[in-house]
Amino acid sequence: MGKQTGFLEYERQEYGYQPACERIYHYGEFLIPLSREQVGEQGARCMDCGIPFCHQGCPVDNLIPHWNDMVYRGEWEQAITELHSTNNFPEFTGRVCPAPCEASCTLNLDDNPVAIKTIECSIVDQAWQNGLIRPQVARRRTGKRVAIVGSGPAGLACAQQLARVGHNVDVYEKADAIGGLLRYGIPDFKLEKKHIDRRIAQMRTEGVHFHTLTNVGVDIPVSQLRKQFDSVVLAGGSEEPRDLPVPGRELNGIHFAMEFLTANSKRVQGVYVPDDQFIDAHDKHVVVIGGGDTGSDCVGTSNRHGARSVTQVEILNKPPEKEDKELTWPYWPHKLNTSSSHQEGCERMWNFLTKEFVGDESGNVRAIRYAKVEWHKDEQGNWQMSEVPGTEAEMPADLVFLAMGFVHPVRAGMLAELEEKEGLQFDERGNVSGATEGEEAYKTNVEGVFAAGDMRRGQSLVVWAIREGRQCAHAVDKWLQGKTNLPR
């Protein structure tokens, strides 16, 4: 694959970034793409490693060595065909995926993996620029109708796959625009929404019907969909945020991360947001509680607002700067992740326990009282936390964003109706219960109702949602027709 000696001849090169001092003044993407020749050299670095562990690392089973070889040889049209055979939306994953495939790359044993994410993004961007991506309209219609609730990556992948085999597909979205968290949850500086809009246009041509501002279970009952459609897919995501019930939680200025990010993204995209619903971080001391990607997005957005200071805190230990390859490879390593938003300006603190939010005389948050903690394993091997005596202190905070993840799907509305009327079952974490393998894959316990993405799996990555959407489409098609040609 690629050039047998390419990994010795060419240095790893990723797409570049516009300097932080420039990009914090706008909300556009700041990637600097490689030339076709440079991408070809990166494809040449894919060595003939015998066992492509990158396949194991990629949730959608991308045929990575194949399209690496194709770009090396200048076969760009074949490359996008191969890429699309496993991934409906590589322009999404090429921008926001953390690239577990690169962690699994054989060359990562030497901290020098193939730039798979950059190559993937380059293939699909070149394909759009050169008119190589076209609608794939089904040659025949099956007459079967499928309703998909939720228009995030799982719902969209499922919808596109089912439409391409001839089913009539309707997608229902409670927001005013299609895309789920891709639309308003992920900032535009990470994913410009033109990428979603192009796919929506493609899918409309393929026969998918989209319904916005339609909250199933609230605006229309689920029972109506059950009567009108042969099958229903639950792909509404996991949106119940994890709260932090400590003294002072009721103070003004403490918000869930998505309240901040959604309102900002709407304004960036030209959607009207009243001033009383917009959260402005300008000239404020911002504290982000939670060390993941959502917290990082709050950091980047706060910097663009012109925050006076931005601090991101995490209750866990600081991860190591570098993983132990002999213990972790080819699996995803536990190590420090520094995002482009962190590079734009942010203080980071670990072992941080929020004890209380402190308010002023007007009921606004003004500080966080915290203490440092340490972690140790008990006799059963479970991690236990203890507070370090004498470490209690206060940190100024005019705005606090809770970015500690999501616990499970929202139960009110659709899921509550299905539970009450049809006995829909949930797993121990509160997600819709459903397997991923065998004859019952992606089926709920309710006949004809399937579940995919974060609503079934729990909070996860965009690439996992695409995988589940595609595999759910396979299961739905087989259930409707008794057989299927859709890939898993």
Structural features:
5-stranded parallel β-sheet; globular; 34% helix; 18 strands; alpha/beta; 16% strand; 488 residues
CA gyration radius, whole angstroms: 23 Å
Low-confidence stretches: none
What average pLDDT do the residues reach?
97
- C-alpha geometry: globular
* N-to-C CA distance: 25 Å
| Number of discrete helical segments | 20
* Structural class category: alpha/beta
Q: Kindly estimate the percentage of residues that lie in beta strands according to DSSP.
A: 15-25%
Strand order of the largest sheet: 5-4-3-6-18
Helix content: 25-40%
Sheet with the most strands, sense and barrel status: 5 strands, parallel
Instruction: Find the count of extended strands (DSSP E, 2+ residues).
Output: 18
Structure in words:
The chain is of the alpha/beta class and about 500 residues long. Helices cover about 35% and strands about 15% of the residues. The chain has 20 helices and 18 strands. The chain has helices at about 5-10, 20-25, 35-45, 55, 65-70, 75-85, 90-95, 100-105, 115-130, 155-165, 180-185, 195-205, 220-230, 255-270, 295-305, 325-330, 340-345, 415-420, 455, 460-480; strands at about 15, 30, 145-150, 170, 210, 230-235, 240, 255, 285-290, 310-315, 345-350, 350-360, 365-375, 385, 395, 400, 405-410, 450. Strands 5-4-3-6-18 form a five-stranded parallel sheet, sandwiched between helices. A hairpin with a 5-residue loop joins strand 12 and strand 13. The longest helix is centred in the last third of the chain and has 20 residues, at about 460-480. The mean pLDDT is about 95.
